[in-house]
Specification:
Blueprint lengths: L1 H12 L1 E6 L11 E4 L6 H11 L5 E5 H5 L3 H7 L3 E3 L6 H13 L5 E3 L19 H9 L3 E7 L19 H13 L2 E6 L15 H17 L29
Parallel strand pairs: 1-7, 2-5, 2-6, 3-4, 3-5
Antiparallel strand pairs: 6-7
Pfam families: Acyltransferase
InterPro entries: Plipid/glycerol_acylTrfase
Organism: Lentzea kristufekii
Amino acid sequence: MLMVVDRGLIALTGKLEVSGDIPPELLGKPLLLASNHIGNLDPMVLIAACRKIGVNPRFMLAGGLLDAPIMGPALKACGHLRVDRRSANAGEAMHRAVAALQKGGDPIAVYPEGKISLDPGLWPERGKTGVARMALGGGIPVIPISQWGAHEAVYWGNLHVSGWKDFLPYLTSWLRAVRKRPTFKVHFGKPVELSDLKAETMGDARRAHERIMIAITEGLAPLRLDEPDLPRFHDPTRPTTGVSPWRPA
């Protein structure tokens, strides 16, 4: 039901373009989908893109979402996993994700950056090695996913929403998108080569992380050929305090 709602929402908001695919031999097996994070709507865009190629992703979500009334139980029923990034249980969450993947079923979608990019050009920020550690620790393939366009649909908004006025940036920007109909581009890249790296070898998690982030960035560059430096769309609510080490020269 949620997938149908998501597909309708994305169709109403803009135009979806999907390129690339997931190799058939990886379907139904443990798999990580690692994507850049450019806006509040891009998880829903990613779900619609996955659905278009016949994949139903699960997400690693902040605990607050899974504890929310109505939405929380629905997300849990869909198989999404909890991760409390600021707690000592973050490592345990990674182990739970690996265990869930090794049981088979749908792939898990993750954001190596851990947050929406605040780089002025919306290139991926440095991120953390959690995804790389899951991949190496469980011998799980990683498909890099690059997104562009979802940042035009919903503003970055506010970190803390305490009243109806805090929802206005999200609502007004979404209504603008419904009128303008931006294009949401999603590209599925080739599996990242990690076979020469080991979980127990010092420095290999960092090397794996670098390869994943570089693969995401290489897939992103062709999606924004006419916007190589700054996005054309200006979000007045998004800080630009981040720095991307992966930005192409």
